C-alpha cells in the first residue's frame, strides 16, 4: 500500500493514512492477502512525497516504510524502493521465531569464546530483539573482533535472523585477512564458517543468490552505489539486510549539516560523506565494530551497546601492557632548528625534487613537531636511529614498527636505521629494514611478510600499518612524528598489544622522539569531525550571481567574507597586484564592500568581474612548496622513561615512592587491596581484575613498576602486581613470581600423600597459577577445564570435596614468607 503526497507534505506522518487503507482492503478475484492475523490486511505500507532522501530533513524526504505485522515495528525512511525479491524475503522473515531460536541456541563453536565476546554477542542480540537498527560494539584492538564476528554471524545466519551480510572493511589487506579467517576458522566440527555459509570476497563485485556473507571495501561499495551513470545500475537497497562495518572509526566523517537557506540552493552531495551515503543507501541493520569510538562514530551508529577497553583486556591477561614511554631527547628536539637572518638556506621543491639556494631574510625556527614535515633534518633522524640501536637487538625474533612523517621521510629513516644498526652490530641484511607504504612495490605482500616471515624485522610506515593489521611479534613502536588524534594514537598502540607467547612477549615499548605525550594531554577522542566541502571562490561567486533570493545571497555573502579574511593573509604580491588590476580596488576594499554593500549590489558588482574567483583561488605555493633543508648538527641529550599519568616523572625512585604512598593510603579503603595484604588465600580473579583497574587509574601498571624497580634497584625481578603491593605495604621481599609458585607447589605436593590423578591435576593447576596469578572456581568452570573434566564440581570430587581449600592453600603458599 503506497500513499503518494506533494513534495511539501511531511511524508513520515503519511504512513498513518497508508495504514488506514491497509486495514480496509477488500479482496477481489485473483487477489491474495498475505497480512498477519492483526488488524492490518496488507503487511507493507509506504508513503512518499517524491523528495530525495536527506538525513537532515528525514521526516520530509525519502520513501517511508512500515511492516504492519507487528505493533512494535517502527516506521523508517528508505532511499529507494525495495525489490520484489526483497519484499518476499521480508515476508518470509519471522523475527520472533529467529530470536526464539537464538535464545535456545548454545554458544558452542570450534573455538573458545572469551567471556567478554560472549557478552558482546548477547548485547547485540538483545538490541536486535528490541528492533534496534544501528548499534556500536567497542572492543580494544587485539581482543578478537573477527572471531566475535564469526561467532555472531554464525548464530544470526543459522537462526535465519538475516539472509545476507555485507562485511565492510576499509583496506584490501583487512579484507583478505578477514576472508582468510572465515575460510580457516572451524565453527562446527571440521567445517569452517566459509564451508557452512557462502562467502564472497573482495574480487566479487556482486553477491550471488546463495551468498550469505559478502566481504568488500568501503571504497568498492561506494563505487557501486555512488559512481554509476544510471541510478538504476546501483545495487538494490535490500541487497543486504545486515551490514557489519569493521574499524568503523576510520575516515568515516560526519555530515556538515546545511542551513535552511543552503538546503534550497546547494547540492547535498557536497556535504555528506560518501561513507554515510553508502550506509544510508541500504535498508539494513548496521553494526559498527571499533576499538576507539569517537563522536562521529557515535552519531552514525549510536552509543556503544558494549564496551571492552584495552585496560580491561590487560587486567584480564588477554592483551600486553607497555612499559613507561622511552623519551629520546636531542639537542635539536630541545632547542629547535633556527636559521639566522642572512643564513644560506637550501630549499627542496617537493613537486619536482629540485634544490635551490636562498638567503634567509629574517630569523625563522622550527620546533620538533615540524621536523621532517616543514623542515628536513637528516641529523635528527641519524641521532634517533643511533639511540634506537642501543635498545633494539636485530638478532631477536621480535619486530619493530617506526611511524614516519611522509613517504620521503620514511626513505630517510630506513637509510639511517640501517647505518646505525650496522655500526652497532656489524653487517645486517638489507631486507631487515624496509619501508612499507602505499608507494612500495606490492605493499600487501610486504605487509604479510612483515607479519609472517622473519624479514623485515624493522618496518617504517606512514599510515599503511596504523590500524587493523595483526602483527603479534611487534614489541617496539617508534614515533618520529606527532599524532593529532588520540584515536589514531590508540590505534597505533594497538599494533603491539597482542600477546605473542612463542617469543616470550611480556610487554612492549614505546619510543617517543617528538615529545608526543605533551601534545596528547589536551586531546580528547570525542572531538567532532566534520566534512567541510571545498567551496572555491569561483563556486561561491557563481552562486552569488546565480541565485535570486536575497536570503540566499546573504548566506553566501557571510561565507565569502569569512573566507576572504583568511585568504587575504596568504595572497602573494603578484596575486594582490593582479586582483587590483581586475577589480579596480584592493582586496581590503573588497572586504569592506562585502561588509557594507547589499546582497543585490554585491551580486551585480561581482557579475561584472568574472575573473576575480580564479584569481583568489590561485595558489602558486601549492604544490611544490619549498621546504628548508637543515644541516644543523645534532647529538643525543638523554634517554629516559616517563613515569606517571603524564609521563613527567623521570626518576624511577620518585615513581616507586608515589606507589608506596598510594598503597598505604588505600589499603584500608579498597577491599580487594586489603585482601591482597591481609588474606591472600581469599583472593579471586575478579578481585585481581579490580585491583589492576584501580591501579591503572593512578598509572601504576605492572610493566611500569617492573621497569622502575629495575632502574632504581638494578634488579630485574619478574614479580607480579601482588608482589609489588605486598612489598610496598608490608616490606615483603620482592621475588620472581615463577619462583614463588614453584616453591609453593613443591610444599603443597609434599604436604600429604596425593593420588597420581590428584598430582597430575595439581601440577596442571600450578602451571596455570604461574600464568594466570589466580585460579579459582570461576576459572575452573571455563575453558579447557570445563570441556575436559566438567569444571569445578567434577574436579572437587577428585579431591574429596576439598578443592576450594586446596586452592586457598596454594594462594596462601605463594605469598608465604620463607626465611
| Shape field | flat
Count the E strands.
Answer: 27
Question: Radius of gyration in whole Å, from Cα?
Answer: 32 Å
Counted by DSSP, the helix tally is 35
The assigned structural class equals alpha/beta
Mean pLDDT: 87
Distance between the termini: 86 Å
Give the proportion of residues in helices.
Answer: 40-55%
The major pleated sheet works out as: 8 strands, mixed
Q: Spans with pLDDT under 50 lasting ≥5 residues?
A: 252-258, 524-532
State which percent range the strand residues make up.
5-15%
Overview of the molecule:
The protein is α/β, with parallel strands linked by helices. It contains 35 helices and 27 strands. Strands 14, 15, 21, 22, 23, 24, 25 and 27 form an eight-stranded mixed β-sheet that branches. It has a seven-stranded parallel β-sheet with strand order 9-10-6-11-12-5-13, sandwiched between helices. It has a four-stranded mixed β-sheet with strand order 1-2-3-4, covered by helices on one side. Helix 4 crosses helix 5 (145-158), helix 8 packs across helix 10 and helix 30 (737-750) packs antiparallel against helix 31. The longest helix is centred in the middle third of the chain and has 19 residues, at 407-425. It is flat. The N and C termini lie far apart (86 Å).
